[in-house]
Design goal:
Layout: E1 2-6, E2 9-11, E3 17-24, E4 32-38, E5 50-53, E6 59-61, E7 69-75, E8 79-86, E9 95-102, E10 105-106, E11 109-110, E12 116-117, E13 121-125
Parallel strand pairs: 2-13
Antiparallel strand pairs: 1-3, 3-8, 4-5, 4-9, 5-6, 7-8, 9-12, 9-13, 10-11
Length: about 130
């Protein structure tokens, strides 16, 4: 899987950013695409911030971002482009956000086990 990610940056608390990820080269063993994040000084989270199932378009979100983040996707011939609209950003949302193609969904959440990750986009929320 190949990724082209964009949209990170610096924003003040309460502001908005939109991440995008164009993914190509999917195979049938991938079930979803979404974002995982790694906060400064911490390990990358094992469950996705948000994820969209490529079979039925169902979505899921971490409790910490519900009501603030929205994931959506567009399909082209050989590329899936996924967007993460992030509103009401908080300093604790500061992290590197990694787009990922996901092989395993557990308890309704995308997991990092067996996933393939992009290069990541820095999101910094600070006044």
């Amino acid at each position: 899987v190949q990724f082209v990610e964009s949209g990170g940056g610096l924003v003040q608390p309460g502001g908005s950013l939109r991440l995008s990820c164009a993914a190509s080269g999917f195979t049938l063993d991938y079930y979803a695409i979404g974002w995982f994040r790694q906060a400064p000084g911490k390990e990358r989270e094992g469950e996705g911030v948000s994820c969209i199932n490529t079979r039925d378009d169902s979505t899921n979100y971490a409790d910490s971002v519900k009501g603030r983040f929205t994931i959506s996707r567009d399909n082209a011939r050989n590329t899936v482009t996924v967007y993460l609209q992030m509103n009401g950003l908080k300093p604790e949302d500061t992290a590197v956000y990694y787009c990922a193609a996901v092989r395993r969904i557990m308890g309704g959440r995308c997991t990092a086990v067996g996933a393939t990750f992009g290069q990541g986009s820095q999101v910094t929320v600070s006044s």
